[in-house]
Design a protein that fits this description.
Layout lengths: L2 H11 L7 E4 L2 H10 L4 E5 L9 E3 L6 H10 L3 E5 L8 E9 L4 E7 L14 E6 L8 E3 L8 H13 L5 E12 L4 E10 L2
Antiparallel strand pairs: 1-4, 2-3, 2-4, 5-6, 5-9, 6-7, 7-8, 9-10
Length: 194
């Protein structure tokens, strides 16, 4: 099982909202997935060294047999997910880190791009304490992205609800309820930074 797949399994077990996903290792499984999903992403995955592995958006011109061969040469499985169909509803990607004193740094980007590409764009950074008023937060590039105070409070509520002090969280905020749990947030990664 690949590290990205293990991460998603961990998030599901911890009751975080993720998009439907499946780990695929052969052409039959991929064909079956294609028969049920017309719009999805394909991420190569393996148990170590997962940086810069191939990533594809499925279309009918994609040579799926060559894709399977490429994955085997790289000792990878394919992690497929149907989240792409919700890109039109994406409000912004975000990364938040919070310390033991409830101080946070929140970065966000409203471009309809994968989270891993958000730092190619101008991000908005918000710093403050979770229990301070919004007016007391400090902002960098405040007007570079669209968001409002209610959305920022919702992210902070997510952190509090999940008792995620000392954590680093990567997620995406949607304009509608999406994912396996039908919520406005998809969580891609969490880690403990104690």
């Amino acid at each position: 099982m690949g590290l990205k797949t293990k991460n998603l399994d961990k998030l599901v077990k911890e009751n975080y909202n993720v998009f439907e996903y499946k780990e695929i290792s052969n052409i039959e499984e991929l064909k079956e997935y294609i028969s049920n999903n017309k719009l999805f992403t394909i991420r190569f995955d393996r148990s170590r060294n997962i940086e810069n592995l191939p990533f594809y958006i499925y279309n009918e011109d994609l040579d799926i047999e060559a894709l399977i061969e490429e994955s085997k040469k790289l000792n990878c499985t394919l992690l497929v997910s149907n989240g792409l169909k919700y890109d039109k509803d994406l409000l912004f990607n975000f990364v938040i880190e919070i310390d033991k004193n409830n101080n946070f740094i929140l970065e966000l980007c409203d471009k309809k791009i994968p989270l891993r590409k958000m730092y190619n764009e101008k991000t908005t950074t918000i710093k403050g304490n979770i229990f301070e008023d919004y007016r007391d937060y400090s902002f960098i590039n405040k007007r570079s992205n669209k968001y409002n105070s209610k959305q920022i409070y919702k992210i902070l509520e997510l952190v509090l609800k999940n008792n995620m002090k000392y954590h680093y969280i990567e997620g995406t905020y949607y304009d509608k309820k999406v994912g396996m749990l039908k919520e406005n947030f998809i969580i891609w990664q969490t880690s403990n930074k104690k």
